[in-house]
Amino acid sequence: MSSSDLLEVPAVGADATANVNQTSPASAATQDRQLRAPANRESLVETVISHNDLQENNNTLNDSPSSTHQRTRTNDKDGGEDVELDDLKPSNASQSPKDMLNATLLPHIDVEDNYMTSLPPPPPFDLEIEDLTIGVPTSSGGFPILGKFFSKPAEDADGQPKSIVRNVSATCASGEMLAIIGGSGSGKTTVLNAIVGRLANLPIESGEISFMPSHRGISVSERKTLSARKMKDKIGFVKQQDTLLEHLTVRETLWYAAALRLPKEISAQTRELIVTQTIEELGLRDVADTIVGGALRKGISGGERRRLSIGCALVAMPSVLVADESTTGLDSFTAYALLLTLSQLARRNRTVILTLHQPRSATFPLFDRLLLLSKGRVVFSGPREKVLPWFQHVNEDFKPGDGVNPMDWLIDVSTVDTREGREEESRERVGLLVRRWEEEGPAFVRPREDEEDGERGSEEDEGDEGTLAVLSPPRRDRTSRTPLNASALEVASILSQTNWDMKRIGILKQTAVLLSRATKDVSRNYGLMLAFTLQSIILGAILGFAFFRLPEDPSGIQSLKTLSLQHLPYFTYLTLIYSVYRYCNTDLILFDREREDHLYAVFPWLISEFATNVPVLGISATLFALIIYFMVGMRTGDHFAWAIGIFIAENVLVQLVTVGFALISSSLNRVYATASTIVNSFQIFMIMTAGLFLLRPPVYINWMRFISPYYYGFRSVVISQFRDRSFSCDGIEGLARNQCDGNQVLNGVLVSPNINPGYYIAALCGMVVGTYSLAGIILHVYRPGGVKHANQLFSSGSGKEAMVSADMEIARQRIDVDVRHICLKWSRRGVEKTILHNINAKFPAGEVTAIMGPSGAGKSSLLQLVAGRQMNAGPMARFQVEGAVLFNGRPRFRGFRALVAFVEQEDNHHLPALTVRETLRYAAILRLPKTMSRKRKIARAEEVLQMLGLTDCADNVVGGELLKGISGGEKRRLSLAVEMISDPAVLVVDEPTSGLDALTAHNVMLALKAIAASGRTVIGEKPTATCQEPPELTFLHPASIHQPRSDIWHAGIDNIVLLAKGGRTAFSCPKSEIGPLCASLGYPLPPMVNPADWILDLVSVDVRGDREQVTRKRVSLMIDNWAEREARKVEDKAANRDSVQGPEGVVNYDGKASVIVALPVVLERMARNLWRQPPVFWMRLYQTPLLACIMLMIYQRLKYGPTGGQDRMGFVLEIISPLAFVGVLNNVAVFPADRDIFFHEVRTSGAYSASTFVLAFTIVELPLEIAGALLAAVVTNIGAGMQTNPRIFFQFAFAEWALVSTGESIGMMFGSFTRSMGFNVSLVSTFITILVQLSGVVSVSLPQWLGTLAWSTTLKLSTRIVMVNEAVGLRLHCTDEEVMGGQCLVQTGEQLLELLGWKDWNVSKYCGILFAITVAYRLLAWAVIRAKIASL
User: Fold this and answer.
1) In whole angstroms, how far apart are CA 631 and each of 194, 544, 625?
2) Which of 155, 850, 1390, 1391 could pair covalently with 1386 via S-S, beta carbons 3.0-4.6 A apart?
3) How far is it, in rounded angstroms, from Cα 1403 to Cα 1360?
């Protein structure tokens, strides 16, 4: 058979183990027994059978020399020759495909002889799931707190209770691996969450899950059944999402995981050996000392992060390992190697349960049991060898064809195909399978299972050299052992104990480990340290200039008195808001997950958190205090050391208390919007009871001063600055002279000069301990963390409109994309890393081109360059790009993005509260040409909805981080559907089939192929799309692929770009040339083997054991061979390489919708998304009135006594200054989601302009802002007893609206430049805090240049409007004694305005300027967003 003939394989699943699908139960049982045969300790015999041997004689295994290749490797400790590259090549071209398979594919996937699998097993446990039914969350009618009293169960259309999974039963004994498979949305993840006891708000309607110790010689009745909770130390759970500390290396992450998870008796040396072996097993050696990285710092790749998450569970050597989509995001080589490792671990008496989406055929024999689900119902549950006989028992036609991957076939046959013309038939088939299983399935499995168990028990130790493993190394007998070194013997001694209650490390060691981990993570967070340093310097300098060198006169004394309090909330508010965001979005998420794994107690984590906060906050607070003290010119002389020590100490302690309060609020609620509202409410009470802005608070809140850090901080500073101090007050005479005596000033704020300020410092120390302790108690007893599941479905028409034609009317030219000599380098501080090296590739129009390669090969980076996307290099780093990307021979042109759509890896840009159907309809209306009617656009959305199999979830909400909506696979398809709506000329897709089940992945690829057939070009890591288009159009679809099934290879791909790790080209050619290329290298494609798996295996380096050198040489050979071919091509075309022109060029197509078309759609979409998030909607409405109510509670009705002037200054300042922060909080709750989808649409299609986006956002927020301002004005202007009339009332409300709107505008500006909302919140809080100091109330001694600059802020204007309206005509009642004693600051409102230095009282003028500045801030936000999208 020639090499080219090897490619002539059926399009459906040619990567299969063929007739293993037709294995009889008897032969399957015999085969399984032989897989457990013991291996010789001195040598390892690897016996492999090829695929086509399995097809012969109805699965009769042939063990003759002609059909079996055996390789014996002697473990010679004294030496021996290294394996050379030629050892992997066939000896001659006529060598059998079976021998080629053995010589190349399997030897470098040898997991048998490694440290982890040779260790003794942990205590074994069997899993049993019995008749499990899990319902949907109950609806509480909008009252979450009273939900348990007023909730009602959700019902389906027939009035029956809804359920996610129903009547699921399954077992998995120790020593077995169970695979839970099924289509997207079948309930796989829900079952896994139930197994580990993490269902959040999902109710278990019936059934149970139990674990039972598996001990030989003990009867079932004598075993003690354990729940998931009691199995906490024996279960390792790997979630879909990777939650890792960004600033630790891979090795450190695994080391700390081992330290927390392994039994305390295991020594540090042994843990190190386990960590090292885990790194080897997971192929992480090359990145072992690389930082994990995150949003602001580049680290390891997505596939490497996935493997690291799995490693964190593996290092614990759990009795039960549960993994959700463990191979998603991994290339096929790494995924297969990982499953082999898990299979070997299972053979060591572990119980392994996992879910899979697109397993390659070689994985089929690795699983002992299968649980096949379809929309939450069981289709099969039992031994793997009985699954195919069961389907033939149901219907003799239900069997996979020759060469079909059985795993893919099982998913295909049990999944509803929602494509047109296939849905009804597939629903009937799935319904039949479910009914037959309920009627006969358990009985069909049980007798055979019992019989097989008996055979295994009696014949377990029998060996049969003639029985061969299918694409898998022989499995060890459970009692066999590899000789262990001293450390391994130590582990053997520990794990062989019969005590099942082995404990992990105690509290003291937990504290030490967590402290070490947190210290490394924080000390390497250079961005955080820089931010705190800049915060101290900038805020200190601004406040220092605002109070610069205060004069010794009444105005200077008033400013110093104000500074004694105001510097605390001014500096700590930024820390407060940032800490709430950090806890809600990163730290407590990791804490919740690790606590679910029962890794440590609350207080060790709390101690490590506090200990790492102290140096960072202490240094920044000290720096801030020193800047303020010397710039302002605070107290010097004999009391200097004492005064500055008090000032520094109270700044540091109040900072720590502030973080403690942030932790308390975040412990109560993990939603940032809610937690920030809680902490802001307390912040206001604490400032008001500090004793400056309100001298005599109402008795019912006066007690709060004892829990206010500002109360203690203010008193300690004001005493240290004023006690026994006399101010010069040159030229000041009369009653005003009373303010020049420091003790009189203290009397004026009701502070006794005789109290030692050290008492207040001691109280602050107590508050530090108290706040962290309270947070710890809350974390210990209250657990609000975790993802909640949506309890509502929303109907958007359900597609019942009369269908009309959705014919597309976009006419585009054919576009060939040419990548020439692309090099991409990343550098930072002299460190340089090459990501792509001299890549040349062609992506022809009308064809699908797949970019393939192992993790870290640069596939996603190449796609982003093709799509013209900006890449984030991280702080102080940059990317350097060389080469060119040409469209029909020409460089990128203006407006090319209208022709290019890019489907990103991440699917988090969708609005969470919209349904799938609504998301697609809005996309269709925005992206399709205006010549199409609205009905035809909606018809197009329905067409794509059905094309990608989304009809079953069409009316489900998409969901987000904290609201569980559609599944990950469904969200991936939704992202594809959105980009396919407009049928772009160039479609770039990054891993389009990752996270999809096999059937959906196949359908997606067929859709992409159909699009390419219409004249477009498809490039990608994984292709996707279907459309009927005129043949003259061009479609480019770049896609990166990790684990393509064989029918995708044959039916969906035309060209291949194969990259090796390090971004080097191994192949870049039409698919038809792959066979000859492999043959020329000595690795011809075997028949019945998935070519995609084959070439991915060839180009992958196995870093485990002695295979690394050999595989590196093989990969280098492939790279060098291709480089030589490219060099010859360059020589042939050197004369005209840079002058190639396409025959047609490229026509600029403007796909942007006009404001008239886009505005109503974007407006409706934003409003609907907001309305369906009640917490966010009501928060935006009630935050301003809530602030007013708090002020009313504190101040009650304003008095006209001696404290009336001071109270009014405090009241106005405290009602005005927080409103901009309220605007920021409103913005943070909504803007990020709207921003993400807008930026995504700009990058992918440029659907509408920045003007449309800003105008729609403004219109949505405006009614809520106005309503909130009017309600707040009723409470404060009328309720608090201020001077009022209709003019004053509406001017008051107008000033409040302007401040909130300004806060929103500032949030939009800063939020447009980075997706890190914690960083944005810090910047915005700093900026607004600075504006507050310029308002003219905090400091009445403001330098002239700062006073002039302050007119550009809405804070100064709003303060003047409210203060002037309140002061003009005001009369206060003071006795002579109160005036002489300094308790009566002023006697009239006019005197108060004179004290503030305000001479212009024209309020109408201020209102006009305020409106203009408010609009200007929104226009500035529009300009910033427009500038940002220009750089996308």
Assistant:
1) 61, 5, 10
2) 1391
3) 8
